[in-house]
Amino acid sequence: MKRRNVAAIAATLSAALIVAGCSKNKGDDGAGDNGQYETRNSLIGTAEDSKGPAPEMPGGRKGGTITFLQNNDFAHLDPAKVYVSTFSATANLIYRPLTTYKETLLPDGSIEMRLVGDLAVDPGKNVKNDCTVWEFTLKDGLKYEDGSPIKAADIAYGVARAFAPEAAAGPHYIQQWLAGDKNYNATYKGPYNGGAKVPPGVTVDGDKKITFTFNSPHCDMPFAAAMTTTAPVPEAKDTKEAYDSVPFSSGPYKIKSHTRGTSMELVRNEHWDPSTDATRHQYPDSFVWKFGSDIVATTNRLKTDEDPNMATYAGVDPAQSAAIWTDPALRKRSIAGSTQFVWYLNINTQRVTDVNVRKALNIAFDKTHYQQLNGGPPAGEIASTVMSPTTAGYKKFDAFGVPPAGDPEKAKTLLGGKSVKLTYAYGNTPVGQQIAAAIKEDLAKAGFDIELVAVDAERYYDVIGDKANKYDFYISGWGADWPLGSTIIPPTLDGREITDQGNYNSAYFDNAEVKTEIDRIMKLPVEQAAPEWAKLDQKIMTDYAPVVPLLYDGAFSLYGSNIGGAYLSKVSGCVNPASLFLKS
Amino acid sequence: MSGTMEPMVTETAGPGVAVMAEIPEAEARKFVGLSPGKLAWRRLKRDKVAFWSFVTVVVMFVVAYGAPLISLLYGKDYTTMNSDLLDAYGRPLGYLNGVSGEHWLGIQIGTGRDVFMQMIYGMRTSMTISFVSAVGAIFFGVVVGIIAGYFGGWIDAIISWFIDFMLSFPFLIFAMAAVPIFANVVVGEAKEVPGWINASFLIMVFLIFGWTGTARLVRGQVIGLREREFVEAARASGAGPMHIIFRQLLPNVWAPILVSFSMAVPAFIAAEAALSFLGIGVLEPTPDLGRLVGQAVATMQLDGMWMYLLVTGGAVFLLVLAFNLFGDALRDALDPKSSR
Amino acid sequence: MFRFLIRRILLAVLTLFAISVVAFGLFFAVPADPATTMCARGCDQVTKDQIHARLHLDDPIYVQYFDYMKGIFVGREYGAGDWKRDCPAPCLGFSFRTDEPVMDIVKRSLPITVSIAIGAWIFELLIGVTAGVFAALRRGTVFDKLAISLSLVGAAMPVFFFAAILLYVFVFGTGILPFPEYVPISKNPLAWAGAFILPWLSLALINAANHSRLGRAQMLETLSEDFIRTARAKGLRKSKVSLRHALRAAINPIVTMAGLSLGGLLGGAVITESVFGMQGLGMQTVTAARELNMPLVMATVLIATVFIVVANIVVDVAYAALDPRVRLS
Amino acid sequence: MTTVTEAAAAAKDTTDEAPYLEVENLTVRFKTEDGVVRAVDGVDFSVQRGRTLGIVGESGSGKSVTSLAILGLHNPKSATIGGRVSVGGTDVVGLSEARLRKMRGKDMSMIFQDPLTSLHPYYKIGTQIVEAYRIHHDVSKSDARKRAIEMLDRVGIPEPAKRVDQYPHEFSGGMRQRAMIAMSLVNNPDLIIADEPTTALDVTVQAQILELLADLQREFRSAIIMITHDLGVVSQVADDVLVMYGGRSVEYGSAAQVLRSPHHPYTWGLLNSVPTLYGSAEEDLNPISGNPPSLINIPSGCAFNPRCKYAMLGDGPCDKDVPQLAPVASDEGHLVSCHLPEGERITILNEEILTSSHLQSRSEETDGE
């Protein structure tokens, strides 16, 4: 699961889910944009796609300083620890992984996303064609901020660092695949304290070639390689703990200063060669991050256009989002659209075994009311599928054919008129409380008798992730780490993923038919698998209804009037700083 | 509010018996020959502010505890979510925050519930919590104060240090940290937490921090009384500690205790509202004033929502003001010297 | 004097110690696992175990407490080997949330809280004491009645309501002031003051009520004292009687209250910070308490307690310095 | 400073005959919530230089209010002052605060009852005396300090140079009163009002203080008003005596007249209620029964009538008409306000009062003076 800023996760439980759409400055109402993701020629790009320089942004111009407002500092900038999407969006300015996503703005305002080679010349070579051995070759002319060349061994060292227990905050995909074990650092604990500089399963051939060998097939490796785990770290520059604040630059910008919790300044890295980079730009002279501006303050500053060169990753203050959403002048200075996140009502299938009750919940649930309580359309669009519209192969369907506001009468019929007593658990926040009260009232119309249990918001995911929990249904969100069904359906709906605690499959859905289907699709090449995931999504919803999809999480944030090149990145779910420029 | 929550029992120049002081006190004392109780009642009756604050307090009681009846007459309840009266973004339709003949004070943003009903039910919550806390805190304070004052010595030393210790606790910070912990420890899982349990967490926090002021006050009074003739006399005639405490000491400290109580109630109302404002306090669906203000502050920038802020914040203000004024008047009446 | 101070400080240390024990015990009694807090959702058991090992979370609580206190006085080390982290004294641990040294968080949020508290304190004393003293001197006049009424209003006004009204009137309604943004005083004193003017006013006007009530009552009390009559009988002019004699004698309780008020402000600026969106220590505490970020909560509780305890000592010393009758022994 | 003292003394010699202080028909009323308090109601008296007037009465009889009225220390907002008060020829009733202020401390000065509360607790004794001196004398601080030490020495405080830097709470009661006197006399005032200056002191110290005052009076020829409820003190120091009751003067005359042949039942009561050294221990004291009257509700007629053994009630005038202060025909200069016919008063005095050992001994004491 891709993590949004932790604060944002808390906010979703508390305030509003913010986001949706993806168009650049369309300035219209922004609702109903989700069709734009549906067609994709090719998800994985070629070596040609991977060549620099990146096509100029329309109107792109060099110079100036862009200021980002943010409440908290980036908890991590160390490539081994970066996981939260805003961290990686920023890290994307500073260092480069093996592969990356190339987002092309199409004339109709939509975005075409393609995985391309970043440091590597292409998105990886499936050496044996069985997805067990992946080989990456580095481009020529790659340099660090001090002018020294980027070597394959540095990437191996970067991956090795990710094995260190101290760096456990980052994603674990590649480590687990290399180790062939979920507990990836049981034996190899990184290059520290005498450990090998190259992790087991990785081989470095000269300065340009790095190979990853896995015990089992992992066709998603090109996508996993787009995470910061594969960013190069020269051993000599590894400052360990301090690296988290000031990583060594291989990208278009380098860190000039970083005062924790106060500010960070990025300036141009003169040794970065645009001809080696297919996705990044280097328009502003510098970026400045100012920390300590909360969501209300940030919204007010951007709303008044106090400084036209300002931008933020943060969403709009939920209390004001409606007013800003409906103000055409402000909408022109905003990015809005769906992110990779989807919010669900998980039905605990261990407890609610009657599929008709689950279907009745799907039918009776008033999603419009839920959306309204979260602040209306800016919070996100009403969902009906497990997979987000940003997923490759996404296909819209509605398994029950009821209006978004639900159909309590129909649900009542399905329940046979009997009263069903269920327990709803929710994270204890002001909006969480209101939503709970609303759910109780709305579902009562269909004959449900709902008991409300407040759970400490911070422990919420622990509680619902406990297999033995005593609740019948609860809300949670899921965001894919890369835009494939393989990071959505297997982790959340595969019965084999269920453990005693820390479950993502918090519907505890365990179905043989679905498991077989998952195994089949997992072996397919990425391009073929995409539509199959969508089909499975529809099958699960129609036949088993283990969840009630609620909203496709919406991103909605403002930026200053002098900022150009802003669009909602499908990769991060927020603005992409690497494309921004100042208009004057 | 400040770090501690000790109800204010100092000063205040209320109206009332002000002019007396000009005459040398010895002379003033001579010609007022009424009993203290009668005198207090006379002063209280004559004090217009006291009268009106008392009326306000009574009205608030009636409104808060008669809320179900008012709900019946008004034709609305505090739970119904009028989502049809909200736009797609959850904002109330119509004027201000949805003020109409149907909903006199408008409806809540987001949920669409009637603000007037939420408010008077919220008042009931606030007042219940404050009263129970005040009764408990004063009782606890009196007991500790009497023990410390009466027995003196090392018992007094320990209690006095403990009071200092409690007063050094940053109340607000501690309450923020402790309330969720109480909730976790006391309530088992998979059970809907009834409103009263929730409220009792707050009451518990108020009890823990609220007794110190009274204890200090009573301790001081008791130390003063302990050596007085009538107590000495009772002791000399062989009366036990219980007799002395209940028959000799308590009757003589009831006035400051009453004043303490009258000042503790508004202090707790304000503290409860502050905690709820910060999101620590009673939960939905139990209505609460501080939480309403919190929502109003968060949304005050939206068109017409100032009304929501004014109504909810004003309610807290009036509630505290009325209780404060009444407490002041009571204190002035019971202890004219305090209002020099 | 010296012996009094020593005893007072020892007592304060005992209080601090007791509070640290209670706070530590309470916060660590929370059922939530700090490791979960540290890696949010998506935390696998491996990661949790590693966090536990690194923060010694599996040690008995008294060992953890001892280590924590040791860290404050002599510093401590987290982890071992190449990634060993040094946390020099005074070490308040690392934030469960961001892994940042708590000391760093304190260092950057304390100035905000101190700015709010000191500024508000100065304003509230200026406004409150002046109003109270003048009300007493002009007793029965319109000014006196106004001061009494306003102080009654102030005493009943919830800070969050008043702060919101100020914000609405000066920022959102009229746009006279921009939305407050913290600027260090060292960078731009004017911008600093501009950012804090509303927080100051919102706290000062409300707290001034207490000072003016106390100031008025104290002045009235001293004005009726015999020595004031003596001073007038000497032929002193009224202004001198009021200021040199009456105010001098009334100042002690006012100073006491002022000291306690400052301690309270430093520990209780939370609501103001919350309304104005300032990342002071108070807001850090609210967030930390909500996130069960215990090291940060612990630190803020300790710091707030230190403020209150120190304020108490300072008040006692000031009392002795101001009143020749008080002997500190 | 001796030059100043001598000059002042010389100046005083020339104005010997006319009374320095004249009070005519003085009334002081306070408005309170409970009604109007008639604290002083039509009082007349005068004092010459070098002479001492004793004002006697219970608490609440209006003694202290009278003295504060002379200094103009009542709050004009709550107190209404009527009548004429002439100090050294200046009428001080209705005089501007600024002019009054210049007279206070210099022309008229006051020694207060309780020196502990009447001295500022936070200032050193010296500072307070220096302040009093510098208000009326434009001298440097060091000169004023010398004067303060001199005054402390003069009132009999040992080691004055050291004591000058001490705080009131570091002084004993008697020393404090001496310091108070030093402060009051630092400007050589012509009129000294001493409000129960010895009440709080033990007998030995009391005697010393009275002695001191007498000495100082001899030296400076000041007029002194000695307010007290202690007839012993009065008999010791006063030339004239004014007895007050319920805000009015009930008897006025020379010390010998009032103390040896009192004509007012209240004065009799006062004399009877005082124990003396010469009284026998077995003999009961005879306190005046009842309480002093409420000044809001002064009894109709003679204010003393509810407590008066000899009151002529019913048909008599005592509870109907307010008696006027009238001369005693048989005793020149002796004034009394009583409805009892003079003959009857003399009879009672001779047959009941003078036979009591109290008054006997008291009279003897006065004789000895």
TrEMBL record, chain A:
<feature type="signal peptide">
    <location>
        <begin position="1"/>
        <end position="20"/>
    </location>
</feature>
<dbReference type="Pfam" id="PF00496">
    <property type="entry name" value="SBP_bac_5"/>
</dbReference>
<feature type="domain" description="Solute-binding protein family 5">
    <location>
        <begin position="116"/>
        <end position="495"/>
    </location>
</feature>
<dbReference type="InterPro" id="IPR000914">
    <property type="entry name" value="SBP_5_dom"/>
</dbReference>
<dbReference type="GO" id="GO:1904680">
    <property type="term" value="F:peptide transmembrane transporter activity"/>
</dbReference>
<feature type="region of interest" description="Disordered">
    <location>
        <begin position="27"/>
        <end position="60"/>
    </location>
</feature>
<dbReference type="InterPro" id="IPR039424">
    <property type="entry name" value="SBP_5"/>
</dbReference>
<dbReference type="InterPro" id="IPR030678">
    <property type="entry name" value="Peptide/Ni-bd"/>
</dbReference>
<protein>
    <submittedName>
        <fullName>ABC transporter</fullName>
    </submittedName>
</protein>
<keyword id="KW-0732">Signal</keyword>
<dbReference type="GO" id="GO:0015833">
    <property type="term" value="P:peptide transport"/>
</dbReference>
<dbReference type="GO" id="GO:0043190">
    <property type="term" value="C:ATP-binding cassette (ABC) transporter complex"/>
</dbReference>
From TrEMBL, chain B:
<dbReference type="Pfam" id="PF12911">
    <property type="entry name" value="OppC_N"/>
</dbReference>
<keyword id="KW-0812">Transmembrane</keyword>
<dbReference type="GO" id="GO:0055085">
    <property type="term" value="P:transmembrane transport"/>
</dbReference>
<dbReference type="InterPro" id="IPR050366">
    <property type="entry name" value="BP-dependent_transpt_permease"/>
</dbReference>
<keyword id="KW-0813">Transport</keyword>
<comment type="similarity">
    <text>Belongs to the binding-protein-dependent transport system permease family.</text>
</comment>
<feature type="transmembrane region" description="Helical">
    <location>
        <begin position="253"/>
        <end position="283"/>
    </location>
</feature>
<feature type="domain" description="ABC transmembrane type-1">
    <location>
        <begin position="123"/>
        <end position="327"/>
    </location>
</feature>
<feature type="transmembrane region" description="Helical">
    <location>
        <begin position="158"/>
        <end position="183"/>
    </location>
</feature>
<keyword id="KW-0472">Membrane</keyword>
<feature type="transmembrane region" description="Helical">
    <location>
        <begin position="195"/>
        <end position="218"/>
    </location>
</feature>
<dbReference type="InterPro" id="IPR025966">
    <property type="entry name" value="OppC_N"/>
</dbReference>
TrEMBL record, chain C:
<feature type="transmembrane region" description="Helical">
    <location>
        <begin position="254"/>
        <end position="276"/>
    </location>
</feature>
<dbReference type="GO" id="GO:0055085">
    <property type="term" value="P:transmembrane transport"/>
</dbReference>
<keyword id="KW-0472">Membrane</keyword>
<dbReference type="Pfam" id="PF00528">
    <property type="entry name" value="BPD_transp_1"/>
</dbReference>
<keyword id="KW-0812">Transmembrane</keyword>
<comment type="similarity">
    <text>Belongs to the binding-protein-dependent transport system permease family.</text>
</comment>
<feature type="transmembrane region" description="Helical">
    <location>
        <begin position="112"/>
        <end position="134"/>
    </location>
</feature>
<feature type="transmembrane region" description="Helical">
    <location>
        <begin position="190"/>
        <end position="209"/>
    </location>
</feature>
<dbReference type="InterPro" id="IPR035906">
    <property type="entry name" value="MetI-like_sf"/>
</dbReference>
<dbReference type="GO" id="GO:0005886">
    <property type="term" value="C:plasma membrane"/>
</dbReference>
<feature type="transmembrane region" description="Helical">
    <location>
        <begin position="296"/>
        <end position="322"/>
    </location>
</feature>
<feature type="transmembrane region" description="Helical">
    <location>
        <begin position="146"/>
        <end position="170"/>
    </location>
</feature>
Automatic annotation (TrEMBL), chain D:
<comment type="similarity">
    <text>Belongs to the ABC transporter superfamily.</text>
</comment>
<keyword id="KW-0067">ATP-binding</keyword>
<dbReference type="Pfam" id="PF08352">
    <property type="entry name" value="oligo_HPY"/>
</dbReference>
<keyword id="KW-1003">Cell membrane</keyword>
<feature type="domain" description="ABC transporter">
    <location>
        <begin position="21"/>
        <end position="271"/>
    </location>
</feature>
<dbReference type="InterPro" id="IPR003593">
    <property type="entry name" value="AAA+_ATPase"/>
</dbReference>
<dbReference type="InterPro" id="IPR050388">
    <property type="entry name" value="ABC_Ni/Peptide_Import"/>
</dbReference>
<dbReference type="GO" id="GO:0005886">
    <property type="term" value="C:plasma membrane"/>
</dbReference>
<dbReference type="InterPro" id="IPR003439">
    <property type="entry name" value="ABC_transporter-like_ATP-bd"/>
</dbReference>
<keyword id="KW-0813">Transport</keyword>
<dbReference type="Pfam" id="PF00005">
    <property type="entry name" value="ABC_tran"/>
</dbReference>
<keyword id="KW-0472">Membrane</keyword>
